[in-house]
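Request from the bench team (R.T.):
"We need a structural guess for the complex before ordering more nicotinamide-adenine-dinucleotide. Sequence and SMILES attached. Just send the tokens back."

Command: build protein-nicotinamide-adenine-dinucleotide structure.
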Amino acid sequence: MIQAGIIGLGVGERHIGGYERHPECRVTRLADFCPTKRADVLTRFPDREIAEHADAVLDDPDVSIVSIASHDQDHFAQVMRALDADKHVFVEKPLVLEIEHARQVRAMLNRKPHLKISSNLILRRCPRFLKLRADIAAGDYGRLFLIDADYQYGRIHKLLGGWRGELPGYSLVLGGAVHMIDLVLWLTGDRAVEVSAMGNRIATADSAFANFDLVQALVRFESGMVAKIGCNGGCVHPHFHKLEVYGTDASFVNGLESAFVYRDRHPGRRPETMREAYPGVDKGDLLHDFVDAVLHDRAPEVSADDVFRSLAVCFAIERAAHTGKSVAVEQL
Ligand SMILES: NC(=O)c1ccc[n+]([C@@H]2O[C@H](COP(=O)([O-])OP(=O)(O)OC[C@H]3O[C@@H](n4cnc5c(N)ncnc54)[C@H](O)[C@@H]3O)[C@@H](O)[C@H]2O)c1
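Reply to R.T.: structure attached below.
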């Protein structure tokens, strides 16, 4: 039985069930520094102890896997401590907030190649996007030339208050668009090369929120494909992953109820409806695979390289949006 611990019990609470759906994993340590949250989680998991400090997880020699689901600004230090203590790490996105910190995590992993790291880039488990990826791989879309992917947040209250609103420079690119970036990289297998971007903060103008709440980036890929990738913190719209994929043979347009696939340019012809579930995922869905990857010493579904690849594009977009210059994606 492999033992796991979880730091932060917001989305982290969902990791409990994710780990324990694996017959060889048990969550033995939980930590959250908020007493109200601890009391709340105890009503659903009355047989567990929940510590106040992350140390209870990080210092337990019997814990082999640590989920880091704390606030973004604490990820780097906790990831480094967990790796230093020879623990495998499943970290909520974003892995870290600074490029230099990403380099330090990479260097630590290079020194400890037996350790696994992954991140909760959960859209890969969405049934509709899995079908889209299989169809792209089968050649149904021909050559891809454009993807339009937008993280429509629909939760502006989380930017106006709470830890996201209080964190100086909270990045909706690192915190939200990262899902769309990973999705585009995973759907296409292509490599992002160069980025230009613009942003504004009109929707949160009268608040303390200090970074862009709207960012739109143009990303050039090795194949020549272009992707428009953005995050839209102010949209008056339900939380949604806007996705349009244009290939030489077909176009895919995601919708809230179903998606549409156009295989014809004729205006009278109806598109095909793709009814696979969206989002259709639970936030703990990647954990069974992660435990298996640890037990069988193989790369997890979201590999370390995948985590660094999407992060590299995030850093390039942030820099491009803030400098107004086009930025080469620096692989990490
Ligand atoms: N993968 C996803 O789809 C997804 C979805 C939501 C959030 N997240 C990520 O998960 C992380 C947490 O976000 P959330 O929405 O759950 O926030 P949240 O505020 O709802 O919950 C976080 C919990 O962690 C606790 N906490 C924070 N830092 C801590 C620390 N250093 N030590 C102990 N306890 C700590 C807080 O008290 C809180 O109860 C963020 O990094 C966020 O980006 C990922």
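Two things stood out. The radius of gyration is 20 Å. The chain has a mean pLDDT of 97.
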